[in-house]
Specification:
GO terms for molecular function: aldehyde dehydrogenase (NAD+) activity. InterPro entries: Epimerase_deHydtase, NAD(P)-bd_dom_sf, NAD(P)-dependent_oxidoreduct. The protein has 323 residues and is α/β, with parallel strands linked by helices. The protein has a domain at 3-166 and 196-223 and 285-302: 3-Layer(aba) Sandwich (Rossmann fold), CATH 3.40.50. It has 12 helices and 12 strands. The strands form 3 sheets. A 7-stranded parallel beta sheet has the order 3-2-1-4-5-6-10, with helices on both faces. A 3-stranded mixed beta sheet has the order 7-9-11.
């Protein structure tokens, strides 16, 4: 039986990956903070191992010699500059420590979950990455570079780059949008077009990256290309909410973000909309996602339709009383 050590198991990608690994017959050990809500893993036949990913000694104690794989989808997805220091620790330092221990403990393969958003800046080096304005993109690219350094030292590692992940086990991200649509509080959509990744298919691609991925390679995990208006409208139709979604112009969201950021200076609470989020709402051309072809050819990756991934997410939310 293969052994996997997994971070971020209570998040959307990680929780789906737990299911995929268990279905494939793996032994799964969940690396988690002491404060993690492990009720999200209730009923899963996994082993729990508390760890402080910011501490190299703690990571050394948590991971034994010769495990088959470390899957590292955990990450700090904050889009507020006030969280920059914590985000660097969560995304860069944690990855650096895991890479170091993977080398020391002769881990079979290291699978790191980055984000397709790094490609908005291209394959920039460390010096350029440090000047990326958006904290989430900056720290994910820097974390990728930590993995690359590990590869140069002999680590067998593969990087995945999911785009917008939609599906079951989403407790925070697009689940909030579905709740707002259901309650009638949301009648306007975000601007721009982008690709969407089904959570279950993305998780399967992580296992495929372990099985088939080329050492040191990076694989984009995208999916159907659509506008945010289409995404919101599809959700409203599935929920049975009679509304005709309209996309607000990009400048409206820019103004809203600046207003919320100004208020946040006094409340010290992360705004729902920030300049970093607005940057990510830009209209991304469909050609940007051509890199996904490599994932399809080498990993056998396929993503469900927009309708299917939204429906799965909504059905899961209903089943657990969140909608």
């Amino acid at each position: 039986m293969k052994r996997a050590y997994l971070t971020g198991a209570t998040g959307c990608v990680g929780r789906n990956l737990v299911d995929i690994l268990l279905e494939a017959g793996w032994s799964v050990t969940v690396l988690h903070r002491e404060s993690s809500d492990l009720s999200r893993l209730e009923g899963c036949e996994v082993t729990f191992q508390p760890v402080d990913l910011h501490s190299l000694d703690s990571v050394r104690e948590a991971i034994p010699e010769g495990v088959d794989a470390i899957f590292h989808p955990a990450g700090n997805v904050s889009h507020w500059p006030a969280h920059a220091e914590q985000q660097w620790k969560d995304n860069v330092l944690a990855t650096r420590n895991l890479v170091q221990v993977a080398l020391e403990k002769h881990v079979g393969r290291f699978i790191f979950t980055s984000t397709g958003a790094v490609m908005l800046y291209g394959e920039v080096d460390e010096a350029a990455a440090n000047h990326i304005k958006q904290g989430y993109i900056r720290t994910k690219r820097l974390a990728e570079i930590e993995v690359q350094k590990g590869v140069e030292r002999g680590l067998d590692a593969v990087v995945t780059r999911p785009i917008i992940v939609v599906g079951k086990y989403d407790y925070n991200n697009y689940a909030r949008i579905f709740q707002m649509i259901k309650s009638g509080k949301l009648r306007y959509a975000l601007p721009g077009r982008i690709a969407f990744c089904d959570a279950g298919d993305g998780a399967r691609a992580h296992l495929a990256a372990y099985e088939k991925g080329r050492r040191g390679e990076r694989y984009m995990l995208a999916g159907p290309y659509a506008s945010w208006r289409e995404f919101f409208q599809e959700a409203a139709d599935i929920l049975g909410v009679k509304v005709r979604m309209r996309a607000l112009p990009h400048p409206v969201f820019t103004t809203m973000a600046h207003t919320q950021e100004f208020i946040a200076r006094f409340t010290r609470k992360e705004p729902d909309l920030s300049s970093d989020v607005v940057f990510l709402l830009q209209d991304v051309p469909e050609s940007f996602f051509d890199a996904q072809r490599k994932s399809e050819q080498e990993l056998g990756y396929r993503s469900a339709s927009l309708h299917a991934m939204i429906q799965e997410s909504i059905e899961w939310m209903i089943s657990v009383g969140r909608l």
